[in-house]
C-alpha cells in the first residue's frame, strides 16, 4: 500500500468513480484512499495456483472463488480492499463491484505488506463473522500459515505444512500445488 491519494475523504460512490476513471486499484478506509502497488511473478503465480486449486476443490459446491480484482468490503471498518484470493459461500453477499462475508481470505505476503497482513489487516478481517479461514502464503520461501476460527471464536494456527485441511469447506489444499512452478530467486531491481 502506498501513501494517501487525497486528503479529502471520499464517499463510496466517489471511490468507485475514481477507480473507474483511473483504471487503478485503491484501498479505501473510512474515506481515505491508498494506491495499490504491483506484485511480483511469484506473487501472481502463487495467487493463480491457489485460485485453480480452490476452484477445482469447490466445483459443484455453493461457493465462489475470487481473485485479486474483486473488492472486499469490511463493514465494521468501512474498508474496501483487494485480498489476493477470497471464497464466498452461503453467507457471502455480492454487490457487483464488491463482495462481503467471505468464508476464506488469502493474502500472499511480500516484504512491504507482511506486517500489515499479519497485524492490522488480520484484525480487520477478524471482524467478519462469516470468515472461517485466513491463509497467509510466503512468496519468498515455501511456507504457509492457515488460521481457523474455532467454535469459541478464537483463531487457531493450523500446524500442517504439506496439506491444508479446511474442514468447514470440505476441501484440502496441497502446499506443493500452491507453489507449483514458483522459483525462489532473489528479487532484483532493474
Fill in the keyword field for this structure:
alpha+beta, single chain, disordered N terminus, tt1808, chain A, globular, 190 residues, 2 domains, six-stranded mixed sheet
Indicate the low-confidence ranges by residue numbers: 1-6
User: Number of helical segments?
Assistant: 5
Radius of gyration: 16 Å
In this structure, how is the largest beta sheet organized?
Answer: 6 strands, mixed
Strand order of the largest sheet: 2-1-5-4-8-7
Please identify the structural class as seen in this structure.
Answer: alpha+beta
Average predicted local confidence, pLDDT:
92
CATH class of the largest domain: Alpha Beta
> Shape from CA axes?
globular
Number of domains: 2
Order of helices and strands: HEEHEEEEEEEHHEEEEEH
User: What percentage of amino acids are in beta strands?
Assistant: 25-35%
Structure report:
The chain is α+β, with helices and mostly antiparallel strands. The protein has two domains: 1-37, no CATH class; 39-178, tt1808, chain A, CATH 3.90.1570. The protein is 23% helix and 30% strand. The chain contains five helices and 14 strands. The chain has helices spanning 12-22, 41-57, 114-118, 120-125, 175-178, and strands at 26-29, 32-35, 64-66, 71-74, 79-81, 85-88, 93-94, 98-100, 104-109, 133-138, 144-149, 155-158, 163-166, 171-174. A six-stranded mixed sheet has the order 2-1-5-4-8-7, covered by helices on one side. It has a six-stranded mixed sheet with strand order 3-6-9-10-11-12. A two-stranded antiparallel ribbon has the order 13-14. Strand 4 (71-74) and strand 5 (79-81) form a beta hairpin. It is globular and about 45 Å long. The model is unreliable at 1-6 (pLDDT under 50).
Amino acid at each position: 500500500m502506498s501513501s494517501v491519494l487525497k486528503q479529502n475523504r471520499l464517499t463510496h460512490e466517489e471511490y468507485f468513480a475514481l477507480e473507474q476513471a483511473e483504471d487503478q486499484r485503491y484501498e479505501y478506509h473510512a474515506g481515505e484512499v491508498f494506491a495499490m502497488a504491483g506484485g511480483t511473478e511469484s506473487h501472481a503465480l502463487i495467487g493463480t495456483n491457489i485460485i485453480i486449486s480452490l476452484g477445482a476443490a469447490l466445483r459443484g459446491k455453493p461457493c465462489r472463488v475470487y481473485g485479486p480484482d474483486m473488492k472486499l468490503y469490511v463493514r465494521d471498518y468501512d474498508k474496501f480492499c483487494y485480498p489476493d484470493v477470497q471464497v464466498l459461500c452461503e453467507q457471502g453477499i455480492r454487490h457487483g463491484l464488491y463482495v462481503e462475508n467471505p468464508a476464506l481470505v488469502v493474502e500472499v505476503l511480500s516484504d512491504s505488506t507482511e506486517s500489515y497482513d499479519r497485524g492490522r489487516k488480520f484484525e480487520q478481517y477478524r471482524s467478519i463473522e462469516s470468515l472461517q479461514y485466513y491463509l497467509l502464503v510466503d512468496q519468498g520461501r515455501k511456507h504457509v500459515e492457515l488460521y481457523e476460527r474455532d467454535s469459541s471464536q478464537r483463531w487457531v494456527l493450523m500446524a500442517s505444512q504439506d496439506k491444508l485441511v479446511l474442514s468447514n469447506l470440505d476441501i484440502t489444499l496441497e502446499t506443493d500445488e500452491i507453489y507449483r512452478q514458483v522459483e525462489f530467486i532473489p528479487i532484483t531491481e532493474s
